[in-house]
Amino acid sequence: EMGADERVFQERIERGVKIEPKDWMPEAYRKTLVRQISQHAHSEIVGQLPEGNWVTRAPTLQRKAILLAKIQDEAGHGLYLYSAAETLGVSRDQLLSELHSGKAKYSSIFNYPSLSWADMGAIGWLVDGSAIINQIPLCRCSYGPYARAMIRVCKEESFHARQGYDIMLALCNGTPQQKQMAQDALNRWWWPALMMFGPPDGESVNSAQSAQWRIKLFSNDELRQKMVDQSVPQAEYLGLTVPDAKLKWNAETQHYDFGEIDWSEFNNILQGNGPCNRDRLSVRAKAYEEGAWFRDALAAYADKQDRASGQ
Ligand code: ACO
């Protein structure tokens, strides 16, 4: 049974009016948003690592400048999202300590290694491509600060996806060996990218409530299907083969049918046992520790400015 406050809140959501930080909200709504927004922020920050690995080995100066800009964008996305989470009454320090201790989740996709330059292409094309599919609807979600943050994030993500596809295109128009690198990257990133959308609808414990609150406008499986439908023709244009023997256009549904996802791989990653989980967390924690002097200096400088202005 809903209380009076909750009924007003739910009606407001159904009318499409955004919920703002100082508005009344059910405690569970606040908790759900802190969970999702903080996981999302952590994903952006940890997501810098697989690509940071290739900055010093980018094939040209131009590719290097583009990659650096993209990685900086991801840091910016993390910061907007931590700020959005802070409007819900949690501190950034608390969120970061949950990330560094391994308690907080971040996207499964960032626990895979980036083995070749072609991975920068596949990540931009498939991983950022999937992020866009997931995040465009979030621009219309019920919580104002999250929805607004997503608008700029999505614009930047579309640059990221294009730079990735451009790398794939260059490799596929290159030597047979370069094309093989692109195929190998597609083979390794395809299935993990499909897992980004989360468990199948039947096992998605948070979906029903998040849909009622209009945090989720489409289900995990609906968005995953969109990603397959969008990416298969792009793979064909590149002349690459999607690594799924069951992939087939279905004229009746007007969608591609595709094979079974290996959910044991996904669950293993969520338990912290993916190929790079430990490495990602230790690199993050080390970067945070090594940045302590800089945060201290910023705080000391801010204090000095306050004293100088007599505050
Ligand atoms: N990686 C890690 N954990 C996941 C993933 C994933 N790909 N997908 C689902 N999970 C987790 C959920 O967080 C949830 O665990 P929790 O209850 O402990 O938080 C559990 O699996 C069950 O999943 P759902 O009930 O389906 O969870 P939810 O309703 O939150 O849906 C989704 C998951 C679709 C990822 C949602 O949280 C979302 O849209 N998040 C915002 C987008 C985002 O975080 N993107 C990050 C990657 S994109 C990028 O940064 C480039």
From TrEMBL:
Pfam families: PaaA_PaaC. It comes from the Bacteria. InterPro entries: Aromatic_CoA_ox/epox, Ferritin-like, Ferritin-like_SF, PaaA, PaaA_PaaC. NCBIfam families: PA_CoA_Oxy1. PANTHER family: 1,2-PHENYLACETYL-COA EPOXIDASE, SUBUNIT A, PHENYLACETIC ACID DEGRADATION PROTEIN PAA. This is 1,2-phenylacetyl-CoA epoxidase subunit PaaA. It comes from Paraherbaspirillum soli.
